Amino acid sequence: MQTLPQLKRRIESAEALRSIISSQKAIAAAELLGFERASASIEACVLMLERAVQAVLLDLDSPVRPGNDEKGSKPQNDNVKIIIGSDLGLVGRFNRSLAGEVAKEILRGDKIIALGRNMASSLVAQGVAPDREIAMPGDADGIVDAASDILESLGALSPAAKVEVFFNKRSGSSWQHERRTLAPITREYLAGISAREWPTRSFPGIAASREAMLDNLMSELVLYGVCMALSASLAAEQLARLITTQNAEKNIDERIEGMTLEYQSRRQAEITEELIDVLNGASAIAA
Fold this sequence. Notes:
The chain has helices at residues 4-57, 94-103, 117-125, 143-154, 187-194, 210-286; strands at 80-84, 111-115, 132-134, 163-171, 174-183.
């Protein structure tokens, strides 16, 4: 059985750990808010890009390059799967659950890009060796740079190559898996953009080549599609960390309460025993 000094040291250690966990929780809450704001900003950029695409499509007859979404095209083995995870811990099953889900979707010949060393390790545990591992951005300012690194690592792909991104996104007070196709950009997607109502009475004049401009805009849409996935994943990561730290804080509080009650009970028992010894001693002297 532990002595009272030992039990007191354990209580002090638990309280110090709780202080650290509380700090981590506060940081996670602040980071969550920051990445959610970044997500909103990136979504606004995507809407602006889609508006620009709509303007280019106004007088363009054949908006998609041949082979992008043609049915019956020969399958390619340069298809890419981008899996976004985390570099830091305290996120529970954030990486493991997504890695397990993605492992079921991977086909022979797929190029695998893992973001975050924890995701890379989780994929290896599932029997999947990533072709490249890229570090996750540390803050919202690094999202665009990280997305550019990802696209640069893809290199030259065939027009029919399929690029998919897998990540976790916030869903209420928890998070869920998400899967999006970044490329090829299909005729259906562009047709949906083209069918939107133009917000003003006048239409923009475009001096440059519409085909070249559309090609550049579609590249930007892919880039910001990666940015959206990164920002959503980073927000979900902070939410997972917030949930983990909240649970840890609750467990530590319960542990401290239990040890404190034990300490007080045993301390009171010692005091009572000491008082009894004093009374017995006094009685013996009086006799």
